[in-house]
Specification:
It contains 16 helices and eleven strands. It is α/β, with parallel strands linked by helices. The protein folds into three domains: 54 residues, Alpha-Beta Plaits; 275 residues, no CATH class; 91 residues, no CATH class.
Length: 449
């Protein structure tokens, strides 16, 4: 995962080094150096949190333009159920699906329909004995990467199923092959996404060697074009194949409610997700069977590629549910289809390790502890690191200096001014020479040894 594709990028021309992003990154993947933010690639999980809070729009999502569909002979749209919550007074999903055909797609395959299949397969999986409980949902790719980076002991708790997006793509691709006779190269399958993490999941999939999805479009780009077409839709085509269970996946709690089991927990927002994972790691939760986690507030409706307030969108989805049957899509047999299973399990990504050499890592840890003791412990972020301990780690790794801390720098400047005053003159050269001779924390440590 250290070479993973990233769907969150930085426009350094717009960055003013304000440090807003460094405090909110869940994996401490951002630093501000030389007045500009820098993203540590290996630590970034593409959750989009920095995009959400950057006041200068310096963080940008990567996704495919709508025009990319023109490169394929047969084009399939995979609308996320979060798309339905973007429209006011919607009472018929077929209006949206028919509108997508008007955008140039040849077929529409609902991700919410595949979600109903995943829900049924999960109920079968949960009935098995010997599985690690509680089981953690595998639907949110940002959460999966967070677990791989920060919570390695929880990897074996993750549900080993592909996401509804991936399941929908595999089913749609197989159907298109049979009905059109076209090759995979001629079939384009495009997920209409609420978040950039899904872009990463397509380019660098978890659990599979290669995704069945061709590209990812942003809801924010598709919405205005689709809204215009929907106003012109006359007779709709009966395309919808999902009910309450599938559509409810748009908001937090929808997946866990579909298990028809009260022993579950659902949490949204990356900070709340981290708290739950920390509690789970510390074995604070008892009697839970399933945990649903979404990096975005409100669930998928809260993704940074949506256009509507997440809580308004979620309320719209709740209203839409009253027009729907309970469930429309079912597994043909009471068994988990092979295509739903991961090809390989979630693995720990040691991007936060100090060193692969345990002896060296312990020595570095000791030095980090020592330098942390010299710092004020305010975690103000003025140094460009999210916390004093992160600055200490950066110093030990050679990426920062202790004088990056404004309080340490102020103290040294004060000492210099006191020295100048006591000398009764301004021997600047002597003071500069004295500063050059002052040992850094690492030099002092080496000398002490």
């Amino acid at each position: 995962m250290d070479k993973v594709f990233h769907s969150v990028t930085l426009d350094s021309n717009k960055c003013v080094g304000c440090t807003n992003c460094i405090k909110r990154c869940p994996t401490e993947a951002i630093r501000v150096r030389d007045g500009k933010a820098q993203i540590i690639s290996g630590r970034c999980i593409d959750c989009g949190q920095c995009i959400r809070i950057c006041p200068h729009y310096a963080k940008r999502p990567v996704y495919d333009p709508l025009s990319v569909i023109d490169s394929y002979k047969y084009k399939i749209a995979l609308p996320a159920p979060a798309l339905y919550g973007q429209f006011n007074d919607l009472d018929d999903i077929d209006i949206i699906l028919t509108g997508l055909l008007g955008l140039g797609f040849d077929h529409v395959a609902e991700v919410s329909a595949a979600a109903e299949l995943i829900s049924e397969a999960t109920r079968i999986y949960m009935s098995k004995k010997g599985i690690k409980r509680p089981v953690i949902s595998s639907a949110c790719p940002a959460v999966l990467r967070l677990i791989a980076v920060r919570f390695p002991d929880l990897c074996e708790h993750v549900l080993p199923f592909v996401s509804p997006m991936e399941a929908a793509a595999m089913i749609a691709r197989e159907k298109a092959r049979q009905e059109t006779g076209l090759s995979d190269d001629d079939i384009g399958i495009f997920f209409i996404s609420p978040c950039p993490a899904k872009v990463t999941d397509v380019k660098s999939p978890i659990g599979k060697a290669k995704s069945s999805v061709t590209g990812v479009l942003a809801i924010s780009e598709v919405f205005p074009k689709l809204a215009s077409l929907m106003n012109k839709v006359g007779e709709t085509e009966p395309l919808s194949q999902s009910g309450v269970i599938g559509v409810s996946w748009a908001g937090i709690g929808g997946e866990s409610a579909a298990l028809l089991n009260e022993q579950h927990l659902a949490a949204d927002g990356i900070e709340n997700v981290i708290q739950v994972l920390e509690g789970l790691e510390d074995e604070k939760f008892r009697g839970l069977d399933f945990i649903e986690l979404s990096a975005c507030s409100g669930g998928c409706v809260g993704g940074v590629l949506t256009v509507e307030n997440p809580y308004v969108a979620r309320a719209r989805v709740q209203r839409l549910r009253k027009y729907l049957p309970f469930s429309c899509s079912h597994l043909p047999t009471h068994a988990i289809p092979e295509y739903m299973n991961w090809e390989h399990s979630l693995e720990f990504s040691p991007v936060m390790e100090l060193s692969s050499d345990i002896t060296k890592a312990m020595k570095m840890m000791s030095e980090i502890d020592r330098i942390s003791g010299l710092l004020p412990g305010l975690d103000c972020g003025s140094c460009g690191a999210p916390s004093c301990r992160c600055l200490a780690e950066d110093i030990v790794k050679g990426g920062a200096q202790i004088t990056d801390c404004v309080f340490i720098l102020r103290e040294r400047i004060h000492n210099i001014s006191t020295t100048l005053a006591s000398m009764g003159s301004n021997p600047l050269a002597s003071v500069q020479e004295k500063m050059m001779r002052m040992p850094s924390p690492m030099q002092k440590s080496d000398r002490d040894e």
